[in-house]
Write a structure and sequence with these properties.
The protein is of the alpha+beta class. 35% of the residues lie in helices and 21% in strands. The protein contains 3 helices and 3 strands. It has a 3-stranded antiparallel β-sheet. A hairpin with a 4-residue loop joins strand 1 and strand 2. Helix 1 crosses helix 2. The protein is globular, with a radius of gyration of 15 Å.
Amino acid sequence: MKIKTYKYEYNWGDASAHLEIDIEKLSEGDAKMLLEFFSWDWDLEKNIYDELGRLYCRTAMCFATTNVHNLRGVLSDFEDAEGFPELDGSYGIKLISVEGIDFSEIEMDEMK
């Protein structure tokens, strides 16, 4: 089993995601198909798994922030969204952890 691990964070840890891709389960062709389903801006010159890992981590952080969901909720968000496989590892992609931005902890300044 060949696993590629992706860990991304936003704004020094305000949001983060950890994803694994089993490149023996998910072919390069399938990874490309998943990337092409959306009109994402991805780099054709970079490794296709790296691009998929980056964009799936970003999407996970967006789901976690927008819907105020934990890992279980974000996995459900992916299941409900069109174009995404289940991220439980059965298709070679597994979301390990995710944290969204917690706006209750963010300082805000009043604009005048």
